[in-house]
Amino acid sequence: MHILVLDTIHGGTVIGEAFASAGHTVDCVDVYRNTTPEAAQNAAKRTYNLVIAPVHLDPDHPLLRQACAPVITHHEAVRQLLDRDIPVPMIEITGTRGKTTTAHALAHLMIGPGVLHTSTGTYEYPERRLLWKKSITPASVLAAAWYARLMNGWLIAEESLGVTGAGCCAIITSPEDYRCAAGKRSALAHKIQSAQKSPHLLLAPGIPVDARAGVIHLEDVASCTGQECRITYKGAEHRFSNPLLELTAYKTPLALAATTAVLLGIPPTRLETFRALDGRLHVQHEAGLVIVDNANSGTNATTTIEAARYARACAGMQALTLVIGTVEGDGAVCEGFPPDQISHAIHSVQPEQVIWVGKNSRHANSSIGYNVWDTGLICTTLAHARQCAIDRTKKGSIVLAVKTWR
User: Fold this and answer.
1) Nearest alpha carbon to residue 406 among 176, 133, 177
2) With CB atoms 3.0 to 4.6 Å apart as the test, which of 26, 201, 237, 259 could cross-link to 16 if both were Cys?
3) How many Å apart are CA 95 and CA 57, to the nearest integer?
4) What is the Cα–Cα distance from 247 to 299, expressed in whole angstroms?
């Protein structure tokens, strides 16, 4: 076949190379940075047997609009490339919030060797040895799956904007939606559609999916009260307890991980030893201050408000410094941290002082009563902002609520 692969910066090159290795003729075009103008011009004149495009590409892009060949997504292309050579079991995880926590919690329960592929890195288990760091575009699943097969182990793969559907189970971790593909597509709708081929589909509360064999709504099988979670499946009851269950950011991911483990025949009790991840309500103590690190790719107004509540409870006082914004040029963060959400978070938290990260914070600053732009409390990196917050905070707590790749 003659295949056209669009978008080289979100895994398209990897996909193209894989198809070329399988004997196909492949053209790759950078549709975002225009670094391949000659390839784009040639593609416009050629006839292809297959076009592969990312979910987030504008459907009215000229190379898509004029395509006469079938068009599939990067997710579907990876599914084809994996074919039947798939790790067992292979669990795929997508969603706007909670992906990484769910993935790490499930890996905490898995038995034997395996590979955990997340935005924090790709790890070999049970040693938890870091193998590499790649994005969570669907193309990155290829290398993780290859390594898992090599060691005859399991694979847990965190993926953005959907799943390949190649695994035995898919998990959608949150019902939040946003527009992608130049605002013409629902991200949640695609995630749901991409998971329809998964034999088992586990859904966080609030995700509307029609009933079919293999679809499980979390609220139908799991319930959490205080620090205890109970899962009832096929007449058997499983329980575990963990203080993190009292935090909204952990309750659903831990319940999803535990339920998936039950589906796989694994007891969820080892989650009692699971601890908070770095950047996900991880508590640190420095210079007499409580620092709650909640800076990650899923940070939004809701998680910021929860982090502030948690920080004040840990510190035992109201005094709080909020570090908030989006790291500039962080292409891994698809949905962003819009200025109106930042403003809402600040209004709700009412911190004593705000430290911004990223120039776009200026738009949020104009709508609230914090003149930090004029006072110079603006940083370009999370590390700089964290140190700035420590230097300027005399007592209480600091919350790191920065949208960034971690």
Assistant:
1) 133
2) 26
3) 18
4) 15
